[in-house]
Amino acid sequence: MTLSPSDAEMTDADGAGEGNSLVDRAADAVGGVALEALETAKVGVSADRWTQTLRIARDDLGLGFFSWLSAIHWTNDPQVGDSLSQEVTERFELLCAVSDVTSGELVVFSTDLEATAPTVDSLIEIYPGADWHEREAREMFGITFVGHPCPENLYLPNEFAGNPLLKSFPLLSREVKPWPGDVDVEEMPAVGGGT
Amino acid sequence: MGEELEMTVAPDMVRNLAGAAVSVELETPDMTLNIGPQHPSTHGVLRLVAKVDGERAFDVQPVIGYMHRGYEKLSEVRTYPQITALINRIDWVSGYANEIPFIVAAERLMGVEPPERAQFIRLILTEMARISSHLVFQASYPLELGAATPLFFALRDRERVLDLIEMVTGGRFHPNFNRIGGVKPAVGAGPTTRKTIQDLPAGFLAETRDAMDRVLSTADQLEDLVAGNEIVLARTKGIGILPPEVAIAYGVSGPNLRASGVGFDLRNVSDYLPYHLFDFQVPVGEAGDCWDRWWVRLEEIRQSASIVRQAVDSIPSGPLQAKVPRIIKVPAGEIYVRAENPKGEMGYYVVSDGGLGPYRLKIRSASFSNISILRWALEGTLVPDIIAIMGSLDFVLGDVDR
């Protein structure tokens, strides 16, 4: 058992640097495109290259730590929350964050899945940690992960109908009593010496 | 009486019977053992379904979801300042630490830099949350192994730390203290109106120094109590070994990962709080067994207490709040901010469309990935070791289910 000193130098682990930055290196390695995400290295690939991409990430980029996997439901017609300010094609964006526990580098890989019957290959062969995350995404968004050994609900009963994190899934408490959201913003304290 | 006890069977006959019994193989079907769902006063509500063959457990399936509150969905109908009230209920043992990555994510998207003093206060309170979380572990883990005494020492000092958190934030478990651009005006700062209360309560820094000294001496006491205890050693050394490559592939983070020999600490990697200003060490285990996980958390209490003392001694003066608009609107963009929570990597992926609340908020909590290893870790273990291994992973079900 050892105590290792903390690094005084901050590394550019979040990949926000210029030039040959983490996001460009990752995009080159997997043949994807660098996407806009503040201070976060985000790389987009096509869905048919999903497992191949993550295999390269693990084996060639050294991103062996499985951080998380989840999705975003992009739609212009949400039942809950605010509408988007611009037009989008309805789709699912699948996100998977993997990192390197030596350098601390983290890359979020992203792929678009079609809105009806979204299907993608499971990552469980590459990262066993993807197991529960994929079950969660299947339950919450209705995404099918081909090759997942246990496609069952994680949180809700298996009989539960619907996928709660879809933007088309209403939030019942809000249906009963709408929250007066924008009149409820609290006051900020005065700045400085308290005038 | 003596006559009744007289042996009526010839000794060689007994010997033959005993020999016969040994050679018989009993064919028994595997038993399915259901453990839990357990009461919330333990780790939360977790259920395990284990197949048991004699004393060994196989194919242990954790059943979660009893604490699922749907925070990711609820966040979509709340404003940014309202969300902190939800998220410090994710891991209620270290509620304060949950708020930090989310607030930092919103600040980065807005381009707001909190004042230095506010960052120091955040750092002090985060490390206090780590101490209180690890003290709960130091209390509950020996208890799960059958030793009751450490509980009293650990909880006594945890209460001291929680009192200090309450002194500043007004809440023991759910401080809801961070504001975008700074921290809330502290409670009890002085007999003035709310708007002019601008600083830490009087005596806080001195009391913190005192409390950290006590925490350090309690850490020594805990070590004396537990480390030399033969039963604890027998129950934890070499039990539940987690190889580093398995831990990494499953996304196990925090003290559990460091106990397996991987010296990865997000406080050194991510700049969400000014940790680079302080000297501290990252405890790293060697064997990755239950004992190392206990030891790493004990050592982290000492390191956190040292960080708090340094921060208290060097805290700069100045405002607690940067200038932000009265109504918080976060510009469109996406960001992932992760932090070293007491339980491991906690992060928020915030997708903003420029509105009052996020379009999507993905919460990456440490315990979810940490207990997804349970099925692997419990395969073929002895039934009593299930408790020893589960306890050593130090999870909170609110942090699993969200």
Strand order of the largest sheet of chain B: 1-2-3
How do the helices and strands follow one another from N- to C-terminus of chain B?
Answer: HEEEHHHHHEEHHHHHEHEEEHHHH
| Termini Cα gap of chain B | 68 Å
Instruction: Name the poorly predicted regions of chain B.
Output: 188-197
- Rg of chain B to the nearest angstrom? 25 Å
Q: Count of DSSP E strands of chain B?
A: 9
Mean pLDDT of chain A: 79
Query: Care to count the β-strands of chain A?
Result: 8
pLDDT < 50 stretches of chain A: 5-19
Instruction: Bin the strand percentage of chain A.
Output: 15-25%
Q: Tell me about the biggest sheet of chain B?
A: 3 strands, antiparallel
Q: Largest interface, per-chain counts?
A: A-B, 69 and 92 residues
General form of chain B:
globular
Structural class of chain A: alpha/beta
In this structure, how is the largest beta sheet of chain A organized? 5 strands, mixed
* Helix amount of chain A: 10-25%
* SS strand fraction of chain B: 5-15%
Mean pLDDT of chain B: 83
- Spatial order of strands in the largest sheet of chain A: 2-3-6-5-4
Oligomer: heterodimer
Name the overall outline of chain A: globular
Describe the model.
- The complex is a heterodimer of chains A (195) and B (402).
- Chain A is α/β, with parallel strands linked by helices and 195 residues long.
- Chain A has 4 helices and 8 strands; from the N terminus they run βαββαββββαβα.
- In chain A, the strands form 2 sheets. A 5-stranded mixed sheet of chain A has the order 2-3-6-5-4. A two-stranded parallel ribbon of chain A has the order 7-8.
- The longest helix of chain A is centred in the C-terminal third of the chain and has 12 residues, at 130-141.
- Chain A is globular.
- Chain A starts with a strand and ends in a 19-residue tail after the last helix.
- By secondary structure, chain B is α+β, with helices and mostly antiparallel strands.
- In chain B, helix 5 (116-144) packs antiparallel against helix 15 (383-393) and helix 6 runs antiparallel to helix 7 (204-227).
- Classes of the chains: A alpha/beta (195), B alpha+beta (402).
- At the A-B interface, strand 1, strand 4 and helix 3 of A face helix 2, helix 9, helix 11, strand 6 and helix 12 of B.
- Strand 1 (2-5) of chain A pairs antiparallel with strand 6 (281-284) of chain B, so a sheet runs across the interface.
